[in-house]
Amino acid sequence: MTSQPSIDARETHLSTLFFTQERVFKLLKPVSLPFVDFTNTERRCAAATHEFERNLVISPDVYLGLSDIYEDGDLVDRMIVMRRLPADRELSRLLEQGASDEMLVQVARRVSTMHAGLPALTGSSASPASLDAVAQNWEDNFAAIQPVVGSVVEPDEFHRVASLSRAFMAGRAPLFQKRIDDGWVRDGHGDLRAEHIYCVDGGPQLIDCVAFDDRLRISDSLADVAFLAMDLDRLAGPGAALTFMRAWNGFTNEHHPSSLAHFYVAYRAHVRCKIECLKHLGGDPDAADTARAYHELAHRHLDHAQIRLVLVGGGPGTGKSTVAGEAASELGAVWIRSDEVRKDVAGISHEDHAFAEPDEGLYARSVSARTFEEMTRQTTALLEQGMSVVLDATWRSAGERAVLRQIAAGSAARVTEMRCVVPMPVAKERIVKRMASVYNPSDATPELVDYVAERFDDWPEAVPIDTSRSVALSLAAASRALFPHIPDRRRPAPEPLQFSVDLTSLRNAVLIRGGLTT
Questions:
Q1: 462-479: per-residue pLDDT in tens?
Q2: CATH number of 87-305
Q3: 308-511 adopts what CATH topology?
Q4: pTM of the predicted model, to two decimals?
């Protein structure tokens, strides 16, 4: 007697899956939900065909065909036929066992290949990736979560996430448009989570892209991979997410500001939070805890996505460049040094020295005015493109500081101001020592110490940083000014803040568009 092959069945909210030893047959349910209507045969068959065609583009080795079901000669349903993949090779399970970095690199290669094989979308075709569309998606999430604010999500947390997400989008219209213009929008996967990736012989396979709403698949490629980065962070920690994102950047040669990656990771976490909140309202007893975990993940990445403008000022020789450099490193920010910009506008190499008396030569008022104009141009362009900026200059003029605050407000950037202070004899001694250095772009002289001190406008908004102590103590004080909500920032943060690893290329790509102020 021939034994019959066993068939297992599993259900999701949209489909029933039938598993044989080598095949999976997917049958859509005759359901009506707010986002789909599969209640009649025609709609179900059309939806199955569309889902098969979209997934066939991504995974032709997995999606094998369609199988129609007839009753009394009439078509009543249509099944999607797939090759069955081994359950123990699902990425979420492999992560539980400690998936290697090499495996994450292979996944990044596979995802980048998928995106490379898809045409770039522009114009109206790319509208789901526009700022208006992304902003509306966030608002839809907030509306769906609102009924459980106070029971599942803490009100303060809910409003903090709303505030941070809206602030990011408020100042970044040029960034979203540039991503579209540069060809990064694709009709991609839309639900790229670890449970939809199988690491099998021959390379990772991707399954189950979003098919019921094409708009959910069309996005910035970075938003697509951010779904997996979010899931990796959730399942294996931020280090796994960083490894994956760095590999994807390398394979695509794509340069994005770290803030945008964090923003999209936060958005994907927020989407999952919304889904869990809806499950909770539907009676799922475990959904509330899962929703809170996703909301916390969204909050954390939005904190990292904040655009910052940091003014580090003080007289010559006060150590502001040391503090500014460390601040830029901690934030993953662009460091703009007035000493370098001053030479740029004057046409002098950074390595060449041109010492001058106060208000003369490189320090003439006309050169200083051009230097400030160029620094504000660069700052505006970089903030609009999602990059935090640390400005390293004396900042003795209250008027100039006010202009920079206005620029920050226009770009919805958070401002931190620090003034480095040190006894004047110490500052003069430092300047004498560095005047012999060819590697320091500063052309300040000891005479400038007194000159600047006499003309330094009050700066009550700045946090004073005493740099007469050890470098470590000075930097710790600056770090506390940057992160006042974190009690002790003397040790490095346990979580990497920067998804992007080529800040120089990104900065140059933005600034080269305008050129120097003439």
A1: 999 999 988 999 999 999
A2: 3.90.1200.10
A3: Rossmann fold (3.40.50)
A4: 0.88
